[in-house]
Input
Amino acid sequence: MKIAVIGGAGYIGSHVARELLDFGHEVFVYDNLSSGLRQNLFKEASFAHGDILDVQKLNDFFESVKPEGIVHLAALKAAGESMLEPEKYSVHNITGSLNILNAASKHGVKYIVFSSSAAVYGSPKYLPMDEKHPTEPENYYGYTKLAIEQYLQWYGKLKGIKYAALRYFNAAGYDVKGRISGLEQNPANLIPIVMEAAVGKRASVSVFGNDYETKDGTGVRDYIHVSDLARAHRMAFDKLQSSESFVVNLGVNSGNSVLEVIKATERISGKKVNYQVVGRRAGDPAVVLANPAFAKEFFGWQAECSDLDTLLETTWKAYLAN
Ligand code: WQD
Output
């Protein structure tokens, strides 16, 4: 299938592009390189440098490529920042997505796989969280993802575009075959921050609270390997050809604490990771876990390489490669 990967030079987008290429799809990356990297592009995929806010360029891209499917991963994703600068998130995430939807409907796109987030749920009301969990986002970033899911639903109804909204839990890791090593700049997530401490790029990690009701008092998250995520995008396209649109969790239902991540990184890297316990970060739940049963039942996806050691070993290799 001809697939446009919008945001395909980014951390998750590059893994998705690689997976689609590996399975014989024709891949066309569109990215403004604001956080994506040229290093993450593959010679087998064509690349257009453009912004989703540039309606003319976006439409020219759709006109020249005529994709049958698109993956939409172009977004800002720092939950904390979204609470301080919501306007930026409105423009990039919401307006940008509407531009994509309008271009897609104008140019006859049949399938959209959308990069959504567990942030649409807000604080867990029960664990593990399935897709029926109430959607009450607690940060503006999560709200933008939920709003886009709703636009997708409308465009599905009105324009006949089929979509899969993939609600990622905590994405981490690097390509298990080591083919991608573009590091995220100024990361805000735990695992890259711990890696930066291991390579000596930062002095220590701030652990946001050790008084939660968890195994060691630190926050527990459901880390999902980006290669597992990438495979789900490819499988979602296969499924959409014979199914209705769907919304699905991508996680593991197995949690790791902040201290477990730090200790395992020390073991795998052989480096000391200094940390200091600081106060809780506002809005952080103690535990977040996905119920991924629907993904397995509906389209046969389940995590295969999301154990903590594989997550950290692949990430460590990417850091060493830099
Ligand atoms: C993980 C754990 C922190 C940094 C975010 C988004 C969410 C989704 C995934 C995209 C928590 C602790 C972290 C640090 C720490 N993104 N931590 N020190 O908050 O679970 O989820 O990424 O869709 O929407 O909110 O991920 O990696 O920031 O935190 O102690 O310097 O690590 O408190 O327990 P989070 P995270």
Notes: The two ends are 33 Å apart (CA to CA). The mean pLDDT is 97.
